[in-house]
Protein 1
Amino acid sequence: MTPQKKPVVTCPTCGKTVEWAPEQRWRPFCSERCRLIDLGEWASESYRVPAEEQTLPEDSGAEDRRFPLYIS
């Protein structure tokens, strides 16, 4: 029986190929550095999840009736 080839993914930060395996500590990133760069992009809000604006019900008492819906 031949060993199965492990899937290969691309690091989202630098584009380097990464083997998807349990021993690959930072997967899907190639390194801790790339993982931290990505985390910093999310923390600085450079990356965002697209969302639609929602309207609050009339009885909510809020002054501004429109607000963006953020998914956490």
Protein 2
Amino acid sequence: MLKAKISLCLNYFIIALLLNSVAVFVIQMANQFHASQGTISAFAPFKDFSVLVASFILASLIPKMGVKKTNMLGMACILIACIVMGTYPSIINSFVFFILLGISFSLIKVATYASVIHITKGRKEHTSFVSLLEGFFMLGILSMSWLFGVFEDFGKWTYVFWVLAILTIFATLLYMTVHIDEKHIDKELEQEEGEKAKRGVFKTLFSSWVVWFFIILSISDVFIETGLSIWLPTFNNHFLHINTAIAIELLSLFSASLALGRLFFAAILKYVKSVVVLVVCMLLALTVFVTSMFVIKSMPAIHVTLANWTQLPPIAFWLPLVGFFIAPIYPTFCSLLLTCFPSKKFQSPIASIIVIFSAIGGIAGAALLGYLFRILGPAKGIAIPAIPLFIMLLLTIPYFWVIKRKHAGSK
């Protein structure tokens, strides 16, 4: 089982690294492909849009294929995407690249999570391994900035796709040697899949205020996370005039802030009420945005390209710290929703709601923020995520109130 776990973690690492390289493409489409801001704004949400469409289309096909074939098909999509982009880098192929990655992510995520039950024993080991998987996913995101940055330093950023193609081939060959017994599927899981198809379950969910509050909150939060992860390097490059390689590498500070924040607040939430943690974190995140805007407004114009870490202005390090404070928001909202409907028949439909509306939030964050970057410029555009953050702050306490009423009504 150890080989199976290593293989799944490696697959998850690769798809995370590539799927979150949108910010790199946004910069390269402007600098190397000379694409217009309109084209770039249309490109930015392609990752989440392709994931959303693929999730709808493939939902009924994946159970018929089985987890192993599904995972291997996902890895094949990654390999094709890397070869296409490595051989013929262009604007059109950039779109093709993320369409293939969207399909791949939908396949790999479903297959990976469905595989966990086959390679773990007991609830504790299952939970532990899922946490490990998500850790590798975050590691992939962190590695992306530095890997692309290193190749950009050599002026050969597209060579990274050949490195990742080789890694994908290795991961696929390793996965082919893994044995996953799919013959004995747990009857309870089959029943849950059957329940998921019933309209009554979704009707019950969507008749609850808890779900509608969650939809607004999750879209707002993912808007912020996706928007910053895509457009922060462009702000660094176009407004602060930081060279492309360092602008890309600086994105890892935002990713690291998210990772550290989720680990830190996971421990804090054991002892402090979640509503207190979320409200304080949102206020601190807004403080980072507000102070950043004052600094940006008072900054003198930069007329030279900053090519050294020692030349960077403090704002380049300060703004990514917002990730630390927004880190616990999304996981807490998801957990609250899942525990609000503890019956097993609701868990899969709720997971579907989380995935679908998170993708919608990602699309909105990438597209709308890209449009506002073009209209307002990077200095004002980077402040836009503070608006959905303020909306979340206003809705958080009412969200906890409707949850409390839901629990009281179910007793």
